Amino acid sequence: MKLHIKNGRLIDPANQIDALCDLYVDDGKVAAVGAAPAGFVADRIIDAAGLVVAPGLVDLSARLREPGYEYKATLESEMQAAMQGGVTTLVCPPDTDPVLDEPGLVEMLKHRARGLNQAHVHPLGALTMGLKGQALTEMAELTEAGCIGFAQAEMPVEDTNVLLRALQYAKTFDYTVWLRPQDAHIGRGGIAHSGPLASRLGLAGVPVMSETIALHTIFELVRATGARVHLCRMSSAAGIELVRAAKKEGLPVSCDVGAHHIHLTDADIGFFDSNARVTPPFRSQRDREAIRAGLYDGVIDAICSDHTPVDDDEKLLPFGEASPGATGLELLLSLALKWADDYAGSQQDGANALSRAVAKVTADAARVAGLPAGQLGVGAPADIVLFDPAARWTVDAKALASQGKHTPFVGYELQGQVMTTIVAGRVAYQRKLANQR
User: Fold this and answer.
1) Which residue intervals of 131-284 are DSSP H helices?
2) Residue 383: C-alpha distances to residues 23, 324, 417 (Å)
3) Measured on CA atoms in the order 12, 386, 294, 247, is the torsion positive or negative?
4) Contact by Cβ (8 Å): 238, 212
5) Which of 65, 288, 404, 408 could form a disulfide with 276, with the two C-beta atoms 3.0–4.6 Å apart?
6) Is 405 left (phi over 0), alpha (psi -120 to 50) or beta?
């Protein structure tokens, strides 16, 4: 299908475009920007007046819960959530059941995802067999099956020798290792940020040093091996400063932050609200401000949804017993725009705040993952989102497409709503307006 998207504000940070500009799509790819190609006749014209036209969002951490946890969510439900959130590219961690440590499991997941013909799914393979932190997986075979990197999800590697060997292996074949920095022992069993609030509530704490000690270890191993490491879901001011120093030193590291952590703190636990039970835990206001600043100055490369759907049986429990996790695919864009509105817009070049926010969930995220996504140059895949940056909507759990209905933002009014999602040149989702039937 040939598409002509007209009258929209095209924001394509990868190509430094932010202007009123038409976009032309042919055969699943961007055919032209600005002026139509010679002889181009559109099969469909989409009027994007008042809307932003941007690359489809790239999410670096979305648990789709298949295989093994279909009672929490299914590919069908989470793919629909991705479409409603404008997310066209998904990176999924390996902590499924069984764990993604065999090529056949990866191939099966990719085949299921392709069959739905919606978002592009890129699995991370398990770094160690069963995520047990002992024997390394066959990374070459997993890469051939479709893995774009290797991770331990929420399971730290206790044996530093094993992590050293993993990074040596990864460096040999130029693989990226994705690690969430957490010490295997300090903070184990903790459920909230170590601080005055956790003490008052009687909750076991996870200290910031759990993150910083792990970072020191990772950086020493990166210095020794030269392996490329992506740090997942940073949470603390001290940790961000260590990443800043590592980047200044020239270490091949990148990092992301969960969208929830940009806005919430440990105070949002309130009276033991299990919707605010996440991993890593929400930290102090100082940490939150450091995250906002780190996104602005580029120390933090990207924003991810940290989409982790949890069912009622595991969430509607006392805070300490509830499973950590929150749904995020449908909130990713709005939470990124909220950062632009709350923080980036108040900085010196506040006029570029919207473009900065779009970059963090498109081009910058794609660069981290090494994927040909997140940009709309001529010849690029036509993965596109059209959204109304001024539209306000209230987060209603029942209205979420994800099977996981739990998020600490229930009842919040957010800004920015996806109107149309296009995947490979095909309109995969179009929001019905109130006056439409």
Assistant:
1) 139-145, 160-173, 196-201, 209-225, 237-249
2) 12, 31, 17
3) negative
4) yes
5) 408
6) alpha
The tally of CA atoms less than 13 A away on the side-chain side of residue 22 is 16
| pLDDT number for residue 201 | 94
pLDDT tens-digit series, residues 379-434: 999 999 999 999 999 999 999 999 999 999 999 999 999 999 999 999 999 997 64
Look up residue 389 and give its amino acid: P
Of 318, 342, 358, the closest CA to residue 264 belongs to 342
pLDDT digits (tens, 9 = 90+) for 292-322: 999 999 999 999 999 999 999 999 999 999 9
Tell me: cis bond preceding 309? Omega within 30 of 0 counts.
no
User: In angstroms, rounded to a whole number, what is the distance separating the alpha carbons of residues 231 and 210?
Assistant: 14
Give the amino acid at 228. R
Distance CA 146, CA 96 (A): 16
Say if CB 156 and CB 187 are below 8 A apart. Answer: no
Task: Give the contacts of 207 (CB within 8 A, at least 6 positions apart).
Answer: 186, 187, 190, 194
pLDDT tens figures, 80-127: 999 999 999 999 999 999 999 999 999 999 999 999 999 999 999 999
pTM above 0.70, yes or no: yes
CA dihedral over 222, 225, 228, 230, signed as positive or negative: negative
How do 228-231 and 253-258 pair as beta strands?
A: parallel
The pair of structure tokens assigned to 280 is: 């890593």
**C-beta separation of 348 from 328 below 8 A:** no
Q: Collapse the DSSP code of 177 into the 3-class scheme (helix H, G, I; strand E, B; otherwise coil) and give the result.
A: strand
The secondary structure of 237-284 as a DSSP string is HHHHHHHHHHHHHT-SEEEEEEGGGGT--GGGGTTT-GGG--SSPP--
Which residues are tagged catalytic?
Answer: 306
